[in-house]
Amino acid sequence: MKTKEVVLLKRPIGAPVLTDFGIREADVDGPDDSEVLVRVLWLSVDPYMRGRMSGVKSYIAPFEEDKPLNGGGIGQVIASRVPSLKTGDFVLGNFTWSEYDTIPGSHLQKLDADQAPLSAHLGVLGMPGLTAFVGLRRIGGLKPSDTVFISAAAGAVGSVAGQIAKLSGATVIGSAGSDEKVASILAKGFDRAFNYKKVSVSQALREAAPDGLDLYFDNVGGEHLHGAIAHMANFGRIVMCGAISQYNLTKPAPGPSNLSLVVSRRLTVKGFIVSDHNDLQESFLAEATGWIRHGKLVYDETIRNGLESAPMAFIELLEGANLGKMLVKVAEPV
């Protein structure tokens, strides 16, 4: 059978543009033994994909030129050679950016459509939610007495991280790039929030946390990281999750000029990759589904419709056009 797919035509230089991507038709095979043919319903659009487009060796293999992109997705089984997966089942996995994909059954997780909306498994109950949970609990050692700063706090990871910190009793400050996003952050229970395009990070933190920050969850890097270091309390912890402000740079950005404070204030700075911590997924889901069921954890989604919209959705994500999780809805269930 035929399927449309999104391919990487050439590696972006600086900010990606539409001509870096293409849409083409390809053949998709039916399932062999232990495989499943899936109709793709949802695709996850994530910042880490920008690094995979650069061809640089990292913790995950880079995308290949003139080959389809791939990432987290949700699909519906339309043919199966796996006894535990039946036609009509909903599954979570790593799919090509396409309408149909053939996947080994061992690479798929069956989903309960009654537990939560399917799309939630790519956002608040998926990798972004687990990233927030791991970063705060395991990497950051979150305590109820902490004053916590979350950058990109209206995004898929940041918004969940801020709410988890609040549910743990912490005082939470968030930054975002528009007044609309600031309002969204405050509506989720953050104690304070600011628009970094209107006020410097350093000034905002000086006013919001006069006694210093105990924990900084960094999704941005750059000026945010510099400002947070300047306002960390003694023995503070910095969790390095991402650096979206630097993903499109064509040459290395200068590092923060105040790193000497890491020594004088005895700070802990630690980066992490969420896939190293999948042992926490079960406990995360148990807590998160309860929070959602009782209205204690809420989430936003920015949805673009149709496979052809995926390249622009990725470009928009890097431009900060999303509120919460950026998703592409490829098809309706059947």
Task: Give the helix/strand layout.
Layout: E1 2-8, E2 21-27, E3 35-44, H1 49-52, E4 67-68, E5 70-80, E6 90-96, E7 100-104, E8 109-111, H2 127-139, E9 147-150, H3 156-167, E10 171-176, H4 179-187, E11 192-195, H5 201-208, E12 213-218, H6 222-230, E13 232-240, H7 260-264, E14 268-271, H8 281-293, E15 301-305, H9 310-319, E16 325-329
Parallel strand pairs: 9-10, 9-12, 10-11, 12-13, 13-14, 15-16
Antiparallel strand pairs: 1-2, 1-4, 3-5, 3-7, 3-16, 5-6, 6-8
Helix pairs in contact: 2-3, 5-6
Describe it for me?
The model has no long low-confidence stretch (mean pLDDT 97). With 334 residues, the chain is α/β, with parallel strands linked by helices. The longest helix is centred in the middle third of the chain and has 13 residues, at 127-139. Helix 2 packs across helix 3 (156-167) and helix 5 (201-208) runs parallel beside helix 6 (222-230). The chain is built from 9 helices and 16 strands. The protein folds into 2 domains: 2-123 and 300-329, Medium-chain alcohol dehydrogenases, catalytic domain (Quinone Oxidoreductase, Chain A, domain 1, Alpha-Beta Complex), CATH 3.90.180.10; 127-276, Rossmann fold. It is globular, with a radius of gyration of 20 Å. Strands 3, 5, 6, 7, 8, 15 and 16 form a 7-stranded mixed beta sheet that branches.
Strand content: 25-35%
So, CATH architecture of the largest domain?
Alpha-Beta Complex
Average pLDDT figure = 97
Morphology: globular
Number of helices: 9
- The CATH superfamily of the largest domain turns out to be Medium-chain alcohol dehydrogenases, catalytic domain
Which class best fits the helix and strand makeup?
Answer: alpha/beta
Rg from C-alpha positions?
20 Å
Q: Please provide the count of β strands.
A: 16
Number of domains: 2
